[in-house]
Amino acid sequence: MTKGQTDAGKQAAKVLIVDDHPAVREGLAIRISRQPDLEVCGEAADVAEALQLFAAVNPDVAVIDISLKTGNGIDLIKRIKARNASARLLVWSMYPEALYAERALHAGALGYINKEEATDKIIDAIRQVLGGKVYLSEPMSERLLHRTVGGGGERAERSPVEGLSDRELEVFQLVGQGLDTQQIALKMLVSPKTVETYRARIKEKLHLTSSTELIRWAVQWVAGSG
């Protein structure tokens, strides 16, 4: 049996790993390499590299982190789906599933798994997404079901941060990580003026009156969600 084939002679599914931490990529690649039905076909650390690799290797599934070296996982998912509507994508991130899972699904991913989950679950999640099925934790699945059938009652309990757009949330998160406007612009590949527009919208939506208050809120939120 050659590399890339299963015991039944079928080709192993190709997995692209997109994460900004080399050690994380290496650890996941090792775990995948132990599976007879899976093989890593490439690794990327940012949006540009991931888009180039995706087009070159045409993976069966991509495992994508939210936080990347430049750009953002949610934006990457949207861009991949715009080019390849049938792409199967799984988000694997340290950020709260309650806040990001629904955003990931809306962007086009088929699943979301938190990095704090048992490591064997990532393999289960990859296989489920490969099969065209949605992968979420049981609590998150129940939450989305209640939101769908339960009317607006649950909506009133949502955090104000959940009302931010994907890009606003990305800026809010980066502010909380201590980045200034110029650094955020470089990471998001946008102009400083665009970042300032997002900051203004965030302050308005969160009813904050100053940049100092925004920074304090963002730092507290990042500390509590990380």
What's a concise summary of this model?
Helices cover 51% and strands 12% of the residues. The chain has ten helices and five strands, in the order βαβαβαβαβαααααα. It is globular and about 65 Å long.
Outline the structure in words:
It is a single chain. This protein is of the alpha/beta class. It has ten helices and five strands. The chain has helices at residues 22-33, 47-57, 73-83, 97-107, 120-130, 138-149, 166-176, 181-188, 192-205, 211-225, and strands spanning 13-18, 38-44, 61-64, 89-93, 111-114. A five-stranded parallel sheet has the order 2-1-3-4-5, with helices on both faces. The chain is globular.
Count of individual beta strands: 5
Largest sheet: 5 strands, parallel
Distance between the termini: 43 Å
Helical percentage: 40-55%
> Mean of the pLDDT scores?
89
What portion of residues belong to β-strands? 5-15%
Which regions contain 5 or more consecutive residues with pLDDT less than 50? none
Please give a handful of descriptors for the protein shown:
alpha/beta, five-stranded parallel β-sheet, 10 helices
